[in-house]
Design goal:
heterodimer; A: alpha/beta; Rossmann fold; 2 domains; seven-stranded mixed beta sheet; 11 helices; 14 strands; 36% helix; B: 352 residues; alpha+beta; D-amino Acid Aminotransferase, Chain A, domain 1; eight-stranded antiparallel beta sheet; four-stranded parallel beta sheet; 10 helices
Chain lengths: 279, 352
């Protein structure tokens, strides 16, 4: 389903998702129930949409930041398994509260500030451009969406493709963490190896190291911001609960200290994925 | 929290003015020195506490210590056992026993537990009520009259300011290094731009890929001259402003543009850039890489423009998604090196 479906961005990307083959069965827009967007029926509430379409398992939200918490909680209340929150500028307190509520019911929130998730050739939920991703067996999970375009392009040029590409969102606090997605990649028969793409700020990469170390499938990390001045990357008053300043260089160091291979360039990602010891 | 701490221009938190902080803290029942107040008698002891969001746990956390702290960033639980902490579920209040237990763990005298409780509860209430990312009472002094906050700092999540109209005009910008003239020009145009020390001007898409391209140039032996977030806009005016920033930088020898048409179109970008290349007489060598939506249309536009304006495009090399971005960055670095040696790197191959 698409929450906020009558907005301009939602209309545009609902059409793109339908053209890609995504099964968009309903939309939600309070007060606009009964309308239709690109042939998709619009309902007033998530529950109403769910009653008419009990097969709904995911929702993508194009709602203003001030309504994001309410819209996501509505989806959580209905037990929607995957929520893709594209909204930028969602207050941090809202994000961590929504994260808590989703975790309590083992539901997944991508975002805020996410471009969504795509399984090339199968389904797109969000705004990721279909032109960037060709089918294959490499899973990608990243905070930055645009970085994954270049990763996927480089994979294609080196004979590989993407099973699923999931964007956590560019902010320091997101609904899902890397481990939430890595766990799914580990169980996915269509994924043979995984690329973890990170950036400065927050602790999302570090908190997933324990899971990465124990994965059966190969993991290659790629962290941006390694060479940028620290003053641009992170605030000087970073939270004292972190063991190090969350710069790109520190994240690379910690990953490598824990045995996670970290690529230096986009082509290096492909080289590491093709290492003989993983065949 | 757009890019969190990664981008100081879109910093996620803003600081409240000291006068407003003192007012709010006092309203929550905590004795606090007013700004400019003269120091009183020597305190019996000092302590400090903060409430912030722990990125590791994605939960609010309270840290309490029985000393004033000059640099919280230097602390860690492993090396400073006198800092106690407690995490809280987002959206849940902190009641009195939490503060008392923190006081006990931190080693306060039992006779001080109730006062510490009040400080902890007040700080957490401020944190929650105002969508804060940081509430700091530091130092807190203890005198014969009890505990008093000498200095408090409150940083609010700027994305939540709309919910707090009474404090919207009470924020102050964070101190930052004085911007360079180019940085000032960029900010006036609504761009996020930072000068770096190198000679390869970088024009990517957003900040995320911008960092990646800066890294890439370093990795292949070059030196980026800047970090720039193009913001996604592709108008001719927008392109001119950004490209002028790079072309007018005397340090820049080569301009590297990497553009992926994902939410946008490559041909729109081409239509914005081509007039600039044709119109600017003193253009520096450019290395462009395009990929994504309408890539073929963009190629056709560049090919036509290059045929019609060979002199303008003599210094422009264009690559597409069939060339790995690593190798495009190498081209830019090689061009810059050739120029530093005084060689003319343009063999007439022009557009590739």
């Amino acid at each position: 389903m698409v929450q906020g479906i009558t907005g301009n961005a939602a209309r545009t990307y609902t059409k793109a998702m339908l053209e890609y083959g995504t099964k968009v069965v309903g939309g939600v827009s309070p007060g606009n129930g009964g309308e239709s967007v690109h042939g998709v029926p619009v309902y007033n509430t998530v529950r109403e949409c769910q009653e008419q379409h009990p097969e709904v398992r995911a929702t993508v939200l194009w709602v203003p930041a001030k309504h994001a918490r309410d819209a996501v909680l509505e989806a959580i209340s209905a037990g929607i398994r995957l929520m893709v929150l594209t909204t930028q500028g969602v207050p941090v307190h809202d994000i961590i509260y929504m994260k808590r509520k989703a975790r309590e019911k083992d539901l997944l929130i991508l975002g805020g500030n996410t471009l969504g998730v795509i399984s090339p050739g199968k389904s797109l939920v969000g705004m990721l451009p279909k032109v960037a991703f060709k089918p294959g067996n490499i899973g990608i999970v990243s905070r930055s969406g645009i970085t994954t375009y270049y990763i996927a392009n480089t994979l294609e040029l080196t004979g590989m493709g993407v099973s699923t590409n999931a964007i956590l969102g560019g902010d320091d606090f997101t609904g899902a963490g890397y481990e939430d997605i890595l766990r799914r990649f580990e169980d996915d028969p269509e994924t043979q190896a995984v690329v973890v793409a990170g950036q400065p700020g927050g602790a999302l990469e570090e908190t997933a190291i324990g899971f990465m170390k124990n994965m059966q499938k190969p993991v290659v990390a790629y962290i941006t911001g390694v060479s940028c001045p620290e003053s641009i990357q992170v605030d000087p008053g970073y939270p004292p609960v972190l063991p190090h300043r969350p710069t790109g260089a520190n994240k690379v160091r910690v990953l490598r200290e824990n045995g996670i291979p970290v690529a230096d360039t986009f082509l290096d990602i492909s080289r590491l994925l093709k290492r003989p010891q993983w065949k | 929290m757009t890019n969190g701490g990664m981008n100081r221009e879109r910093r996620a938190q803003v600081r409240l003015k000291d006068s407003k902080v003192a007012e709010l803290v006092a309203e929550h029942g905590v004795p606090i020195a007013v700004p400019g107040e003269a120091p009183g008698e020597k305190p019996e002891s000092e302590c400090a506490l903060i409430v912030t969001v722990d990125p590791w746990a994605a939960k609010p956390v309270i840290l309490l210590t029985r000393r004033a702290v000059s640099d919280w960033g230097a602390l860690s639980e492993r090396s400073h056992h006198d800092v106690v902490r407690d995490h809280f579920e987002p959206g849940e209040p902190v009641t009195g026993f939490v503060g008392r237990e923190l006081a006990r763990k931190a080693g306060f005298l039992a006779s001080d537990f109730v006062q510490v409780e009040r400080l902890v509860v007040a700080a957490h209430r401020l944190f929650t009520e105002l969508d804060c990312l940081w509430v700091e009472f530091n130092p807190i002094i203890k005198t014969k009259d009890g505990f008093k906050v000498l200095r408090a700092t409150i940083e609010v999540n700027d994305e939540a300011l709309y919910r707090h109209p009474t404090i919207e005009d009470q924020v102050v910008p964070h101190p930052a290094s004085p911007p360079s003239d180019r940085e000032k020009t960029a900010r006036a145009a609504g761009l996020i731009y930072y000068d770096l020390d190198g000679d390869i001007g970088i024009l990517p898409g957003g900040m995320g890929i911008g960092l990646a391209i800066v890294d890439l140039v370093h990795q292949v032996g070059g030196a980026p001259a800047n970090l720039l977030d193009s913001g996604g806009e592709q108008t001719a005016h927008h392109m001119k402003v950004m490209l002028d920033l790079l072309m007018d930088n005397p340090k820049v020898l080569v301009v590297l543009c990497c553009r992926f048409g994902g939410l946008s179109r490559c041909d729109d970008w081409a239509r914005a850039v081509i007039p600039y290349i044709i119109g600017r007489r003193d253009i520096k060598p450019m290395v462009l890489r395009l990929g994504g939506n309408n890539e073929d249309d963009a190629r056709r536009l560049f090919d036509e423009a290059a045929r019609a304006n060979p002199e303008a495009f003599y210094k422009v090399r264009i690559f597409y998604s069939s060339t790995a971005v690593d190798n495009v960055a190498r081209e830019a670095v090689a061009l810059a090196e050739a120029m530093k040696k005084g060689e003319d790197p343009h063999t007439g191959e022009g557009v590739s």
